[in-house]
Write a structure and sequence with these properties.
alpha+beta; 4-stranded antiparallel β-sheet; 35% strand
Length: 443
């Protein structure tokens, strides 16, 4: 019996094509999670409103942070205040090799043109893709990648005592929990033998001045301060055996003993003095990094105990690239799991070390001692909501100051209380046109 050949199935219409719009939100999340950097995420999120909505989810940010805990380093901002010039940006090697990071660098304002090239601006801190600059009674928090900025007026001083007061530190710290775009500023004033802390919150747009604290051996403090931004702790080198700590959760000062091996080296007449810096790991833990000799580095974590806090050795090791250095090394600063080492008299003046595996991450040729690593902002600007109190503006920093100093007739004149509270602050503007332009070029 001859078999009847199979007949083709009848179709009622054209085959349904699978497109990007057919993907579920979970599929989009899986795609975005595999992107290598925040710059890549920001560009991909601009492909559609739906992708941007998925990329803006706090749950997605948490998952991406777990997979990529450390944002990439775009470069180094080198302070040139002693030369009467604005900070100078030195791009990292990854900016030249990664097209997404290169797009962020090309579209960013790394020449700081919005500061109107006023040499009075001084770089005070740099955290999470934001610069903290100071000019007289004005502070400016500026994100060069997105052009977002917040201009903050310092609170008015009390009548000056005979000795006068001065600001010894301005630090940029993490803001409110659950509000990624928020930040805190902590300024510390000195008046003779006493200190006091003042705190500004971007979500409330006001300053809070805390009481003066006496009994601190102020002349022994070494600036600049060493913030552990995620932990909300600020340190100063104090003497051979301790450092001064300001816990910004309680705004209390205390003294923390240094690790015993460092104290022993300090008192040894034939050994070079140890150099250390305090900051935070990429997981947000407070850490102390010291270098012993030319190639040996130690990482200590701050732990709570029955008597307060103490340093515990977490790891130590040699970095082979430094073994051939016949020069003096100095740990300059620590931030987000990276240590910046200043190499005196070497070809490369600044070297970045990854604390996760004590390996060399990048090196720079700039020959200036005061410098700050600049990491890609996290989460990327434009994918997070700003504080309710912040109003988007497009003023340049200098324009913001003039708005504060001389309000036009079209604006309601602010009272003294409003000015002192910081409510004339210029809120951040969401500007990611540079990434949009780069994305449209590719399409």
């Amino acid at each position: 019996m001859t078999a009847t050949p199979a007949q083709p199935m009848e179709t009622t219409g054209a085959a349904i094509a699978t497109t990007v719009d057919s993907l579920k939100d979970d599929n989009i999340e899986d795609i975005l999670l595999r992107l290598p950097s925040p710059a890549s995420l920001a560009r991909a999120a601009l492909s559609s409103r739906r992708w941007r909505r998925v990329a803006s989810s706090p749950d997605f940010h948490r998952r991406l942070r777990e997979r990529h805990p450390s944002p990439p380093v775009l470069g180094l901002f080198v302070s040139q205040g002693d030369l009467g010039q604005l900070p100078v940006f030195h791009p990292s090697a990854s900016v030249r090799s990664d097209p997404d990071l290169a797009a962020a660098a090309r579209g960013g304002d790394f020449l700081l043109t919005r500061l109107e090239h006023n040499p009075a601006w001084r770089l005070r801190d740099c955290r999470n893709g934001r610069l903290l600059l100071c000019r007289g009674d004005f502070l400016s928090v500026y994100d060069p990648v997105s052009h977002q900025h917040v201009a903050v007026c310092r609170p008015p001083n009390e009548p000056l005592p005979p000795s006068g007061t001065e600001y010894i530190s301005d630090c940029l710290l993490q803001g409110e929990d659950g509000v990624a775009a928020s930040f805190r500023l902590v300024s510390v004033q000195r008046d003779g033998q006493r200190l006091r802390a003042m705190e500004y919150r971007s979500c409330t747009l006001d300053w809070r001045c805390h009481p003066w604290v006496d009994g601190i051996d102020v002349p022994t403090l070494h600036t600049p301060a060493m913030p552990a931004a995620t932990s909300g702790l600020i340190f100063w080198r104090c003497d051979k055996s301790s450092s001064l700590l300001l816990d910004t959760s309680t705004m209390t000062f205390s003294t923390i003993p240094l690790p015993v091996p460092l104290v022993i080296l300090w008192t040894h007449p034939l050994r070079p003095r140890p150099v250390y810096a305090i900051g935070d790991t990429e997981a947000g833990e407070c850490c102390l990094v010291s270098n012993l000799g030319r190639a040996m580095f130690q990482v200590w974590l701050l732990k709570k105990n029955n008597t307060g806090h103490a340093w515990e050795l977490e790891k130590q090791g040699q970095i082979g690239e430094f073994a051939s250095f016949n020069r003096r090394l100095r740990v300059h600063m620590v931030a987000a799991g990276l240590a910046l080492v200043f190499c005196i008299g070497s070809k490369y003046s600044h070297i970045i070390i990854d604390l996760k595996n004590l390996s060399l991450k990048d090196k720079f040729l700039c020959h200036r001692s005061m410098a700050y690593p600049f990491q890609m902002p996290w989460p990327p600007a434009g994918l997070v909501a700003t504080c309710e109190g912040s109003k988007p503006q497009t003023y340049a920093c200098g324009d913001a100051e003039r708005q504060q100093e001389a309000p036009s007739s079209s604006r309601k004149r602010k009272s003294k209380d409003e000015v002192s509270s910081g409510k004339e602050t210029v809120g951040p503007s969401i500007s990611i046109a540079c990434l949009e332009n780069e994305t449209s070029k590719k399409l």
